[in-house]
């Protein structure tokens, strides 16, 4: 459920007509709905009602906007960060360092040190080598790093290959059958407090079955580790719940997910940690775009919009579907190819799709763009970095400026030896 609805024939973000925002800020522009974000956060927490001890860390990578993080901090969320930059954002948003989980397969020594000094709550180690390095850094600083070991459970998440992370051949975590040994060796190191295991098998999961299989395997491993005499007090179950992108998509509800988790983990006796991203932010945002012009094509006309693959990369990267709807629909429909202005054919949002009829100058939105949208934007073709707006009832505010090409140009230099 979201708060982007038609009122009197005009698409609104909560109580704000989208044309008003486009007139003031221009397009393309992302719009986030505060009420939708809040609702998703609360529904996710409610789904975990059967889990007595828990910590929910929002996957910052899905939407790192400062205002979004502040809102989620107020809802009691911590942050799952995968870079020093994300850690700084979470701290800047007012998140408590203890509530931050530092994940990521390639944390540098400088990032580990910064995380330690900031008092990060948990480091999710992706290898024994990383654990050894973190132990040395922590011991040198006279600090202790609370850690979980990320395990690759070798479970097929059944999602797009580029966002699947839990198969043995993926780069993430340590091999399942090596994990207990690594855990034992790392537990013996000064500077580390090994306290748990972490797992994340992929994103946009349409079924709970692979998650349940992975969690069950993790429970077995947890018992093995306890039997060998090491402590396990925290289990981090990652993120991954899918969201509907188009009519007919059926995704697990947070309530069903929570019930499954409670059933599988009921006798674990640990604090459970979660790293949801898309399920919180995905349907909380839209990307507003304006049709530049419509030109004829061989089988269908091309609707050329002012948003492009640099603003919303998902269709180009993963052939992802984002619903395209007119801001002021007439009721008429057309079959069209929706493309951006960038000079390569991957800058295509849809081919041969039946959409609301639109013409030059009309506004439209790509839906379900709140996760992995603005955060993956870039400036390819020397385009601006797309701005972001948050709406709250009848209020709205720019929460990220449009970074103009001139600003980016100003950061470049021609060395004098070229002249
Ligand atoms: N935890 C870890 C360790 C992760 O790697 C991810 C996502 C999450 C949590 C959050 O997953 P979520 O709940 O959002 O599914 N750019 C891609 C998605 C990449 C996901 C990467 N990892 C896309 O646009 O579909």
Provide a compact summary of the structure.
29% of the residues lie in helices and 25% in strands. With 419 residues, the protein is of the alpha/beta class. Strands 4, 14, 15, 16, 17, 18, 19, 20 and 21 form a nine-stranded mixed sheet that branches. An eight-stranded parallel β-barrel has the order 5-6-7-8-9-11-12-13, surrounded by four helices. A three-stranded antiparallel sheet has the order 1-2-3.
Plain-language structure description:
Helix content is 29%, strand content 25%. It has twelve helices and 21 strands. The chain has 419 residues and is of the alpha/beta class. Helix 2 runs parallel beside helix 9, helix 5 crosses helix 6 and helix 7 packs across helix 8. The strands form three sheets. Strands 4, 14, 15, 16, 17, 18, 19, 20 and 21 form a nine-stranded mixed β-sheet that branches. It has an eight-stranded parallel barrel with strand order 5-6-7-8-9-11-12-13, surrounded by four helices. The N and C termini lie far apart (58 Å). The chain has two domains: 158 residues, Lyase, Ornithine Decarboxylase, Chain A, domain 1 (Beta Barrel), CATH 2.40.37; 248 residues, TIM Barrel (Alpha-Beta Barrel). The protein binds ligand LLP. The site of ligand LLP has 21 residues, from helix 10 and helix 11.
């Amino acid at each position: 459920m979201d708060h982007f609805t038609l009122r009197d024939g005009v698409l609104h973000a909560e109580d704000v007509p989208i044309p008003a925002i486009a007139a003031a800020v221009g397009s393309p522009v992302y719009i986030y709905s505060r009420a939708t974000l809040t609702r998703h956060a609360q529904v996710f927490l409610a789904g975990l009602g059967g889990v007595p001890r828990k910590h929910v860390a929002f996957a910052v990578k899905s939407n790192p906007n400062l205002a979004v993080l502040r809102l989620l901090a107020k809802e009691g969320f911590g942050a799952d960060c995968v870079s020093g930059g994300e850690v700084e954002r979470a701290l800047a948003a007012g998140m408590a360092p203890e509530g931050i989980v530092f994940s990521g397969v390639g944390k540098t020594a400088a990032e580990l040190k910064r995380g330690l000094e900031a008092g990060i709550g948990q480091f999710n180690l992706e290898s024994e080598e990383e654990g050894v390095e973190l132990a040395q850094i922590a011991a040198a600083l006279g600090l202790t790093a609370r850690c979980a070991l990320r395990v690759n459970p070798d479970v097929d998440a059944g999602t797009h290959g580029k966002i699947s992370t839990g198969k043995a051949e993926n780069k993430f975590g340590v091999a399942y059958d090596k994990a207990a040994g690594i855990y034992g060796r790392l537990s013996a190191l000064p500077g580390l407090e090994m306290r748990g295991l972490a797992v994340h098998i992929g994103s946009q999961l349409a079924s709970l079955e692979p998650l349940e299989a992975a969690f069950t395997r993790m429970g077995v491993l947890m018992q093995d580790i306890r039997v060998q005499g090491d402590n396990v007090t925290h289990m981090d179950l990652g993120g991954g719940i899918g969201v509907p992108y188009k009519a007919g998509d059926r995704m697990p509800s947070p309530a069903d997910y929570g019930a499954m988790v409670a059933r599988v983990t009921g006798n674990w006796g640990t604090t459970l940690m979660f790293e949801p991203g898309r399920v919180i932010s995905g349907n909380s945002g839209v990307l507003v775009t304006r049709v530049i012009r419509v030109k004829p094509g061989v089988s269908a006309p091309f609707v050329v919009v002012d948003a492009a693959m640099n603003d919303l990369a998902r269709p180009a990267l993963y052939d992802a579907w984002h619903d395209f709807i007119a801001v002021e629909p007439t009721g008429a429909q057309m079959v069209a190819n929706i493309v951006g202005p960038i000079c390569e054919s991957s800058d295509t949002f849809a081919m041969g799709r039946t959409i609301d009829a639109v013409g030059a100058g009309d506004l439209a939105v790509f839906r379900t763009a709140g996760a992995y949208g603005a955060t993956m934007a870039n400036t390819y073709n020397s385009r601006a970095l797309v701005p972001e707006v948050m709406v709250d009832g009848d209020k709205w505010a720019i929460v990220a400026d449009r970074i103009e090409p001139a600003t980016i140009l100003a950061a470049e230099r021609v060395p004098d030896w070229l002249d």
